[in-house]
Automatic annotation (TrEMBL), chains A, B, C, D, E:
Domain of life according to the entry: Bacteria
Its membrane topology: Multi-pass membrane protein
Region: Disordered, residue numbers: 1-22
Presence of keyword Transmembrane: yes
Organism: Salegentibacter agarivorans
GO MF, one example: cobalt ion binding
Protein name per UniProt: Magnesium transport protein CorA
Amino acid sequence: MVKRITQSLRRPKMKSVNQPPGTVTYVGRKESGETSLEVIDYNKENYERHISSSTEDAFKFEAEDRITWFNIDGLSNTAEIEKLGKYYDLHPLIIEDIVNTTQRPKIDEYEDYLFIVAKMLYHQDDKLVNEHISFVLGKDYVLTFQEAGGDVFDGVRGRLEKAYGRIRTNGSDYLVFALLDAIVDHYFLVVDELSEKVEKLEEQLFESQPSDDITYEIQDLKRAILRVRRAVFPLKEVISRFQNLENDLIKTRTKNYINDLHDHILQVSENIDLYREMAWGLMDMYMTTISNKMNEVMKVLTIMASIFIPLTFIAGIYGMNFEYIPELQWEYSYFVLWGVMIVIFLLMIYYFKRKKWL
Amino acid sequence: MVKRITQSLRRPKMKSVNQPPGTVTYVGRKESGETSLEVIDYNKENYERHISSSTEDAFKFEAEDRITWFNIDGLSNTAEIEKLGKYYDLHPLIIEDIVNTTQRPKIDEYEDYLFIVAKMLYHQDDKLVNEHISFVLGKDYVLTFQEAGGDVFDGVRGRLEKAYGRIRTNGSDYLVFALLDAIVDHYFLVVDELSEKVEKLEEQLFESQPSDDITYEIQDLKRAILRVRRAVFPLKEVISRFQNLENDLIKTRTKNYINDLHDHILQVSENIDLYREMAWGLMDMYMTTISNKMNEVMKVLTIMASIFIPLTFIAGIYGMNFEYIPELQWEYSYFVLWGVMIVIFLLMIYYFKRKKWL
Amino acid sequence: MVKRITQSLRRPKMKSVNQPPGTVTYVGRKESGETSLEVIDYNKENYERHISSSTEDAFKFEAEDRITWFNIDGLSNTAEIEKLGKYYDLHPLIIEDIVNTTQRPKIDEYEDYLFIVAKMLYHQDDKLVNEHISFVLGKDYVLTFQEAGGDVFDGVRGRLEKAYGRIRTNGSDYLVFALLDAIVDHYFLVVDELSEKVEKLEEQLFESQPSDDITYEIQDLKRAILRVRRAVFPLKEVISRFQNLENDLIKTRTKNYINDLHDHILQVSENIDLYREMAWGLMDMYMTTISNKMNEVMKVLTIMASIFIPLTFIAGIYGMNFEYIPELQWEYSYFVLWGVMIVIFLLMIYYFKRKKWL
Amino acid sequence: MVKRITQSLRRPKMKSVNQPPGTVTYVGRKESGETSLEVIDYNKENYERHISSSTEDAFKFEAEDRITWFNIDGLSNTAEIEKLGKYYDLHPLIIEDIVNTTQRPKIDEYEDYLFIVAKMLYHQDDKLVNEHISFVLGKDYVLTFQEAGGDVFDGVRGRLEKAYGRIRTNGSDYLVFALLDAIVDHYFLVVDELSEKVEKLEEQLFESQPSDDITYEIQDLKRAILRVRRAVFPLKEVISRFQNLENDLIKTRTKNYINDLHDHILQVSENIDLYREMAWGLMDMYMTTISNKMNEVMKVLTIMASIFIPLTFIAGIYGMNFEYIPELQWEYSYFVLWGVMIVIFLLMIYYFKRKKWL
Amino acid sequence: MVKRITQSLRRPKMKSVNQPPGTVTYVGRKESGETSLEVIDYNKENYERHISSSTEDAFKFEAEDRITWFNIDGLSNTAEIEKLGKYYDLHPLIIEDIVNTTQRPKIDEYEDYLFIVAKMLYHQDDKLVNEHISFVLGKDYVLTFQEAGGDVFDGVRGRLEKAYGRIRTNGSDYLVFALLDAIVDHYFLVVDELSEKVEKLEEQLFESQPSDDITYEIQDLKRAILRVRRAVFPLKEVISRFQNLENDLIKTRTKNYINDLHDHILQVSENIDLYREMAWGLMDMYMTTISNKMNEVMKVLTIMASIFIPLTFIAGIYGMNFEYIPELQWEYSYFVLWGVMIVIFLLMIYYFKRKKWL
């Protein structure tokens, strides 16, 4: 059986029907397990990081004059998330979107904060994970809500801790940019993997004997590309709107970075569409491969049958038991017949050679 | 015979020709039967629900300081609907669109009210129903006109009765939003069903022996997706216009909810297009499956014929009745011939093995 | 031979080259015959209808305080049309477009009148007719120029005569709307016919033995859809511009009706594209049908050949005339051989059963 | 060998690389030969036409108060064209575009003149010619530069000479309109030819025995349509910009004519896309034709083999030389066997009849 | 094995993940080797050119009142590039994009300079090279950063040295235009090569015996076109924005040239899409070629089998050893049988002739 890339990309079913809008129901992967909270407080001079498992504990870490990054892993404990939502005065619809892991990427502007939904694509234990993530960008805080533990932000954490680059001197808007940038950078990794898969399949088709399973692998690749595309493409519009937002939360000096991010997401999108078209082409190649093979099979059959069926007929003639067949008595008949048969055989071979079937 | 999903989705014929515009002719499913009226009167403190079969009766339930939701099931009794239209001063074209079940989703702004047409997709008795529904949103009333009994609003009714969520404290615009939200939520269910169908067919194609009927099932699925798409896609534009309307009927606090609704309809649309592309891919997979099977059939034929036709020819040679065939007299001819035949047989097998046909 | 729908839809050749623009040359179906004139004069109280064959006669029917609808059937008598054009002061380019039946639908705004070109699709003597029609909408007159007798306006004529609906109380703009509405209503009929054709062909493909002609029928249907599409789609833009025109000729109360008309033309267009996609799908279905049939043919051949070719070989062995074939003398050889053959036969059957070819 | 339409449509290679922009290098068909100049001077009352071979000669024909149309045939003599360019103060980039016959259609607005590039498609000596043409529209002059002798302007010349229509009374803008109109009118001729080709091929496919060359003819037609499309489509935008230009060179009364021209180019474009889609459909039809033929061939083979292979096996049985075959001695064996064979034969025929293969 | 065009077009992997934005990491072809610097200083009267290997050396060549073109070949020595960036005060994101050779074409406007990224396509040692190039356009300087030695700018260098054309009298904006123009001119060469490849493959398909490798060549061509398209298309937007920029760096007189450049890039893009569509069509042609060949093979088999299988059956009949076969004794049986066989043979030939299989 073919191992499918797409299996881990499949999304859970949609939010439950007949609930009022704003109902906070967790819809996601069952294994998301415990909710854990990580608080990173920083400014140019200071950096503190705390792990906690209750929201109340977490709040006390917040210090003045610092940017606070509040990262929540695991969305099944909706009570904690609602507590956090109350503390930061989040709109009920935001809370609903945070825990609804089927929500597509979007950006919403509220009075005091921006709300951004995205999808992280990354590898964990050799599987491709499609993880729902939400951002709330406030004046001096950033909240991130992830479906489960494990993310693509270790680079950002390291730069925060070691004060590497501009990240500690810039505001909360730069932090959100840096996190989105990390997400988009990992898209490149995923797309590179797709491109390798395309090229591997292509190599197999260039060989003369691709396995029959290749059609399923191609279909699976096509599907994987469609799903990755669906996670990535809406973010293009989100970043474009993020780029053009007239909002005090986003400082001018961050704009250049967001421009750059927009370039990157465009590039990922173009790559996805390129590999998509190539993957579609693979199917065509496979069809011609099959047709060519069938053609070859038919030629072998036709050549064998066309040569031996007439010869068998001739042999059949002289196997008849008529009493008066004059040739039967002649001494050299047998040898002459062999000669005739060899001539017919050679004529057939010549005919097939001229038709380039041999 | 294949059971088709689409049968119940087929729309009746268009409105009758040669009628002046604004003519109120019921065009719809024959079985829609009796017209029944349901009046729900509510404000923050009170809630009343009445069922009636005559419009005049219904009017008396209307109370002051309350929002009135007037729900009509069954459109064949056009007289009652015209009475209602007169009472609420509806434009004749609106009445025409209410009873013309082929009308596509749209939104029209009139002086005192908004008029919205949509399609409900839901399951009833294991069949997928595509039901025409119209909304009239006034300052303190909402009229809904459904083609037949049965709808997707039980959740909304429950929340109204139990004052659950914000529904009793918000205005008529929120009620229309809640009803549209219920419709879109049910689209998700329908789309999930399509996705399961896609995956089921895919599983069958992964097996080596899909039934021949699968081509009709794929076509039927493609058609079902096209029809669902046609019911859903125009609503995207309707909700987008609903979202951007500058109209006193829609309060600011409801806007966020409509934004959210717009996100959902976009998500449904994207899903539909994803499954559509997958369904189209199924046909390709099926074609390669057929070609592969034909290839296999041809190989079996070619191998059998290529091995036995030459051997039969050799046997035919020594079945000839010539008087002078020297080999016939030699004692070991028969055994030597068996040897030759076995060698030929093995060479053929080797040849086919090397060609990877065996 | 297959009867083709499209034949009657084919347009004549384009206007003759090397003529100055504004040259009035009739380009159309030869059979359009005589030009006949119909004048309908009406206001709220009065209604008169005259048939005449000369323009001069017709002018005298015009009465004050009334709307005049001047309908010309047959465009080959260009002199009469030019006379009319002079009377109403029409721009030469309009006259050219009136008699050039290949002109695509359009709307042009002139100082004192609007000029609209459309295509009527309707059935006449069991043939689908694609007839060129032009409208000139003035303050108190409407001119319509039709390629030939027979049209889709009998419903409008009836309502005018019997003062049914709003048609006698509204102005010339409402009359043009009513005529366009009649045209669009007939599009629905044509599209319904296409949908029935699609479904009929589909039924045939669901049967196991569609005739070979079906491929021509599908192609013909595809072509018919393309041609209908080409007659209908430009009108979408025309009506959209008609709807948004800031022009005193179009009264506010007519706007709602034109909105409605725009909805209808959108709906026709969507239906056409739906049936178009279905028609394209039919070809795919047919191809898989052929492939399936070929597969079945090949299986029968392979089974017959694979069973009997080896058996014939065995029979051939013992038909050889070697003097020393030990088996020939043994008394039970014949019966043993039958046994062996039956075993081989059964093994083959079992093999094909397991491969699900039987 | 198939005669290809497209050969004469192929464009020469692009302008030579490593030249500074504005370099005047002739890039075109080698056979364009001599440059010849034609000067037409006209106003309402007067008309003069001169042919000359040197630019200096030509200038002296220019008269006051008249419109001068300066038409150059042949672009290889770049010196003469540069002289003309200096005289009329043309920008160097214009001169480059005039002689670069690969330049796509465009319109450029300069201070004192408009520059328009288009492609003429017409028949010359039974070949379809794609000729590069440039227009310079000044206040009282029009310059046209053609790649070679022969054009589509004889109708315009005739109307100028005979003062037929409005051409002598309107300005230079009307002349450019008239010339573009002549070009677009000839597009209709070319498109009609394509449509006839589509229909001819379709007729051939309707016959049961299309030649194998038809696939090349279809491909050639598809290519021809692509090339015509490429010559025609950019002009659509050019005329649309021409129509909307706010420029004193274009008088109001000419606007209506340009509108009309825009309608025509839209119509040509729609026709091209219609025939394009039909041409693509032809390939599908051809593929099903091939598949149907193959199906028929296979059926004949299968029927013949399925009937005679078992019968031959039976005959083979009784050709064996076993000493104890009881049937051989029985007097009626031979006749009974014939009976059995005829029964088998009839059963096979019945089986194939029921499968509708016969 | 098929030589593939695309191999040299493949881009390296994306920039390394987990780096802060603005990190200067070289991502490119390993062989880019040494960094070399070329400084060209010029004004109307003077011209100087220096080659240096250190940035500091290079700075001293800069003279007043002149335009300086600073060209860097080789991006792996990031330290030198950062030095240059500091000298010209370039934003860190620009430096990152300069050395990230996977960056797609773009244009960014900064306060004192414009930043443009493009891709050069040209031939070097018979291989198609896709080289990353960045431009910084300042008031009196132009910086160009190339991935490796070798470029398409020799024509520009020659015109600078020999003061040919307008290049020495116009500003830095004209120089950037001239360099971009050289890049686009080379696109034409690449596209011409693709067009020749398309035509070569087409010729091969027109022959009756295209090699089986042609399917890989077609796929390779399709891929090459996709990759060239991806290098070229984003530049279309870049030049369009360059054209419409309101920026003091771009003088009015340069605008006309940029317009012209925009025309050229549009033309390249159209050509690419034309050849793309043709390349897609090649696959269809190949499929019909295969089908036609298979058809022919099948006909030969069917004819041979249909003629000789029945005749062999007849011979088998009279090879049976029944004791009572009356025909065997009759003297002329053998000759009559030959007659019967010849008649059957001729009937079969006639049948196949009538079916046009022969």
